[in-house]
Amino acid sequence: MRRRERNRRLGGMPDAPTIFERIIAREIPADIVYEDERVIAFRDIAPQAPVHLLVVPKTAQYPDVAALASADAALLAHIVDVARQLAAEHADGDYRLVFNSGANAGQTVFHVHAHVLAGGLAEGTLG
Ligand code: AMP
Question: 63: how many CB neighbours lie within 10 A of its CB?
């Protein structure tokens, strides 16, 4: 569901920017660790692993990973590649890549983003 449609259904502002759009526009600060013409990456404000980064496409048109995958597989592949590079730079190269999809899966920002979790994660856990 596109953001405008979701906002309309939720009775919100029709075009209210997400927090990630405001970070991309430098309206609010973030600890930015990577940026190129298609994506930005910054530290999660509430880290759930020793290294917890978010890789976010600059376009706001895809609310979740399935919408992105069906419309722009190359951009999704780029996000995965940036995640791999960041895990090598900020940890030992091993990482967990999480895309929460839907409120019941814990998604709170409906602008697709990859969580890059790294830095010594326990085996047999996903949380
Ligand atoms: P999700 O719950 O999958 O939609 O992920 C949204 C993530 O954004 C959460 O892990 C939040 O901690 C993170 N977050 C929210 N606001 C900020 C912010 N201003 N700077 C960095 N990360 C944020």
Answer: 21
